[in-house]
Amino acid sequence: LKIFLSLLFTVLSKVEKYRLVPIPNIEIIKAFGIWDEKPNLEMAVFYNFGEVNQIAESISQFLIECPNYKLPFVLVEEHGPTVWGPSIDITNRYLEATAFLFDIMKEIRK
Q1: Whose CB has fewer CB within 10 Å in the chain, the N or C terminal residue?
Q2: How many CB atoms neighbour CB 94 within 10 A?
Q3: 95 and 83 in contact (C-beta within 8 Å)?
Q4: First-to-last CA distance in the chain?
Q5: Which secondary structure element, helix H or strand E, spans residue 53, and what is its range?
Q6: C-alpha separations of 47 from 9, 89, 91 in Å
Q7: pLDDT over threshold 60, residue 101
Q8: Residue 19 and residue 14: Cα distance in Å, rounded?
Q9: Residue 100: how many other CB atoms lie within 10 Å
Q10: How many helices (H) and strands (E) does the chain have?
Q11: Chain centroid to CA 109
């Protein structure tokens, strides 16, 4: 995942806190309950602070400031995705779809 992230963009800084990265308009997005024809989504990627509370605060603040964020996941740099959903079963489905999405994005970048 670290190599994949470095292909997408340069390393985030503590000041920047997060960056929005476009994701491809592929069919797997429907697994997140997003049925728009071409949603042109961006995923939020967060700086990996040493303190978990700082990461949580950054994500919380982002979700408050961007209430229309459609994806059920964010990515923490050099850590991995944080995924949520209304139930464990649905959250697991979102996690599987997120992993597949990242595999596709990695292949596209080759």
Answers
A1: C
A2: 20
A3: yes
A4: 14
A5: helix 52-65
A6: 12, 28, 23
A7: yes
A8: 11
A9: 13
A10: 3, 4
A11: 17
18-22 and 73-76 strand pairing: unpaired
Instruction: Give how far the C-alpha of residue 54 lies from the chain's centroid of Cα atoms, to the nearest Å.
Output: 17
pLDDT single digits (tens) 35-73: 999 999 999 999 999 999 999 999 999 999 999 999 999
Using only C-alpha atoms, the chain has a radius of gyration, in whole angstroms, of 14
**DSSP-based three-state secondary structure for 57:** helix
**Phi, psi for 5 (deg, rounded to 5):** -60, -40
> For the whole model, what pTM was predicted?
0.84
Whether 77 and 50 have beta carbons less than 8 Å apart is answered as: no
Record the tokens describing residue 49, joined without a space: 């602070």
Q: Could you tell me if residue 35 is left (phi over 0), alpha (psi between -120 and 50 degrees) or otherwise beta?
A: alpha
Sheet strands (E) in 10-95: 18-22, 42-46, 73-76, 80-83
Tokens in use for 39? 């949603």
